[in-house]
Amino acid sequence: MRQALTIMAVILVIALAGCVTTLTDLSKKESFDDITRAYGGSMRWSDFDSAILFVRQPGAVGLDVLKNIKMTTYEVKHHLVIQEGFRIRQIASIAYFKKSDMLLRTISVEEVWEYTEEDGQWYLVKGFPDFK
C-alpha cells in the first residue's frame, strides 16, 4: 500500500511539472500571438512610430525613410519555431508604395522574433524591411 502511494505521488509530481511547462509555453505562445497581431496592425496602418516599439534595437531603424512609405498589405504567410519557446521565424508578405512615385511593390520579408526572459517580451530582431 505504501509503495502504491509513493508511486502515485511521483506520478503526480511529474504530471504537475509537465503542466507547469505546458502553461509556460502556452503563455509565451499567447504573448507571441498578441505581440505579432499588434505589430501587424501597426504595419498595416503604416504606423511605424508604434511598430518600432516591437524592435529589439530601434536605434538601427531610420524613421525618416519610412515617412515616404505607405503600406497596403501586411500578411503573415507562415511561421516556424526555431528555438522552442524563445525564437520564431515568420515570413510576411508586404505590399507598399512610396508616396513619391506611387508604384505598388510587393516583397516577402523574413522576420525573426526572440523572447527575452528579463522582461517576458517578444522582440523583432532585425527591424523593418528594406523598402527599395
Give a quick set of tags describing it.
alpha+beta, single chain, elongated
Explain what you see.
By secondary structure, the protein is α+β, with helices and mostly antiparallel strands. The chain is 39% helix and 33% strand. It contains 3 helices and 4 strands; from the N terminus they run αααββββ. The protein has helices at 2-44, 48-51, 63-66, and strands spanning 69-83, 87-98, 105-116, 121-124. The protein has a 4-stranded antiparallel beta sheet, with helices on one face. A hairpin with a 3-residue loop joins strand 1 and strand 2. The longest helix has 43 residues, at 2-44. The radius of gyration is 21 Å and the shape is elongated. The N and C termini lie far apart (73 Å).
Judging from the principal axes of the Cα atoms, what is the shape?
A: elongated
Rounded to an integer, what's the Rg over CA atoms? 21 Å
Helical fraction equals 25-40%
Total count of strands: 4
Q: Which spans have pLDDT < 50 for at least 5 consecutive residues?
A: 15-23
Distance between the termini: 73 Å
Strands, helices and their partners?
Blueprint: H1 2-44, H2 48-51, H3 63-66, E1 69-83, E2 87-98, E3 105-116, E4 121-124
Antiparallel strand pairs: 1-2, 2-3, 3-4
Give a quick precis of the structure.
With 132 residues, this protein is α+β, with helices and mostly antiparallel strands. It has helices spanning 2-44, 48-51, 63-66; strands spanning 69-83, 87-98, 105-116, 121-124.
